[in-house]
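Appendix B. Worked example

We walk through a single record from start to finish. Start with the input: the chain for Por secretion system C-terminal sorting domain-containing protein, Chryseobacterium soldanellicola, length 229.
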Amino acid sequence: MKALYLLCLALGSSAFAQTITFKGCYNLFDNQPYILTKTGVDAYNKNIYITTPVTGDQDCGGLGTCEFKIQWNNALTRWEFLADSGNGTFVNPYLIYYNSTGNNAALNPPSNTVGTWIENTTVTNGDCGGNLTGANSTMTGDVHTTVLGTTDLMTKSKIQIFPNPVAEIISVSGIDDAQSVQIYNMTGQLVASEIFNKKINVSKLTSGVYLLRIKTKDSQIHEFKFVKK
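Next comes the structure step. The output line below is what the pipeline stores for this chain.
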């Protein structure tokens, strides 16, 4: 496969339709733009974007054909960038990237500076060159560009996890209404889920970077990255 030099996502809108123009991950998607158009909203009022028309014959290097969808996954509370498996139905799509921002209220996908668009290396084998950042990609237009509102930012600033990096126990301070805690690895796999405790035992995790997700009783989500020694 070709080497990846640049990954670029650009979003825009017109007077008639909201569109997303994607160009990047050349190892899998070839060096060409793909236009995704807003096709509607889901049951949670989140916008859905799909390459249209879906013909099943849009050439796409390593995947054969490229039909893309950006949509909200409410079960995992994250935005996902999906590639169709080739039949145009998105019944069993490939998860290419996912983005957990901690903001369930946004109707549009996040920009690449909000949270992190994480490459799902279990599907791409790392061929997309890593997570999307402001240094290796761009995403502008119909996207939300702040993770949390002012009130939420003030709340999150009071919540702390320590130590980080951690060997055995992560302590959480600044939150009293938490309900549950989940830990994901950087490929998006859930590796731990339990009732919230201010002392979280991570000693059984292998060394690496993880996402700690704390859910409150009123369904707010707070997320923190940590490094397991």
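Two observations about the output. The chain has two domains: 19-141, 160-228. Residues 19-141 form one domain.
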